[in-house]
Write a structure and sequence with these properties.
Distance between the termini: 35 Å
Helix content: 40-55%
Strand content: 5-15%
Pfam families: DUF6734 (PF20508)
Strand order of the largest sheet: 3-2-1-4-7-6-8
Largest sheet: 7 strands, mixed
Protein name: DUF6734 domain-containing protein
Radius of gyration: 19 Å
Length: 295
């Protein structure tokens, strides 16, 4: 895989589904967003690669999507790394496993996040850039006495529990020692940590998002953000599904509306892109094909 300041990577980790015996799937809205995420990154910022596993690779192969990532596809890291992590509790741990293997500087980019402009100037001379700060919502970001922990685990006294978590749907890291420190703390919390929380959110967002800010605060490394807050209405930088994914999964009509709007918004930038045209024509529903033809 290529490594440069403009290198990004996606992660498609199917283990949270397959470990529960479920069939892995993505709906039209999720796939279209992933396709546009990769293509828009290549258009404005550079190369993008993918870390996935065997099931994910086969899913993408069956949909003729393997050519999407110009930086290549790696299946070894997620298939061969056998960490003692409960994939149901830590459903995004595949991202951190991939990040551990990725050279810095790099961008970890969620498949449901589209970057719509160049970021080179913004990222220049930065060590850490995330999507936006998170509020310390007590339902998601639990106090340390309520978090589930591995046996014989204790939180270090240097943890600052007042620092705001960082949304890592976009995460740029340009410092290897910091990356290793952050991932070391995350693994210490995730390994052999199998108690199920009531909501299946708090454990993962602590390990990935709150720990990032705690570690950066301890190392006195400021975190820069692409957006000042979630759902920033005037941003011209990102399109993000956020929690909208759950609603789209339950409503096919809403999926079609979302896809049509996304194609209308970004299609002009990609109308000559053969991947965009081929993927839409080969895979998406008749209604979406009509939407593309009407651009």
């Amino acid at each position: 895989m290529q490594h440069s300041s403009n290198t990004a990577f996606h992660v498609l980790w199917t283990k949270p589904s397959t470990d529960k015996g479920e069939h892995f799937s993505m709906n039209d809205a999720e796939i279209l967003t992933m396709v546009l995420s990769a293509l828009m990154w290549q258009k404005h910022n550079g190369s993008i690669s993918l870390y996935t596993d065997k099931t994910g690779y086969e899913f993408l192969r069956d949909r003729e999507l393997l050519g999407l990532w110009d930086g290549g596809i790696d299946t070894d890291v997620l298939e061969m790394t056998d960490y003692p992590i409960d994939a149901e509790v830590f459903w995004a741990a595949g991202k951190l496993i991939a990040l551990e293997k990725q050279a810095t500087p790099c961008v970890m980019l969620d498949t449901d996040l589209i970057i719509t402009r160049p970021l080179q100037k913004l990222l220049k001379n930065q060590k850490i850039t995330a999507l936006h700060p998170e509020e310390l919502n007590g339902e998601a970001y639990l106090s340390p006495d309520v978090l589930k922990c591995p046996r014989d685990f204790s939180f270090p006294p240097f943890y600052n529990w007042e620092v705001l978590p960082s949304n890592t749907a976009f995460l740029y890291i340009a410092d290897d020692p910091f990356k290793d420190f952050y991932l070391g703390e995350a693994k210490r919390f995730m390994f052999h940590n199998t108690d199920k929380p009531m909501e299946m959110v708090s454990q993962m967002v602590f390990a990935e998002q709150r720990l990032l800010s705690i570690c950066a605060d301890y190392k006195k490394m400021p975190v820069q953000y692409l957006l000042p807050a979630p759902f920033s209405g005037t941003n011209e930088t990102v399109v993000h599904l956020w929690g909208f994914k759950g609603l789209l999964r339950r409503n096919e009509n809403l999926q079609a509306v979302y896809c049509r709007q996304l194609i209308k918004t970004l299609g002009k930038e990609l109308e000559t892109n053969r991947f965009f045209q081929r993927y839409v024509q080969a895979y998406f529903s008749e209604e979406l094909k009509i939407a593309v033809q009407c651009l």
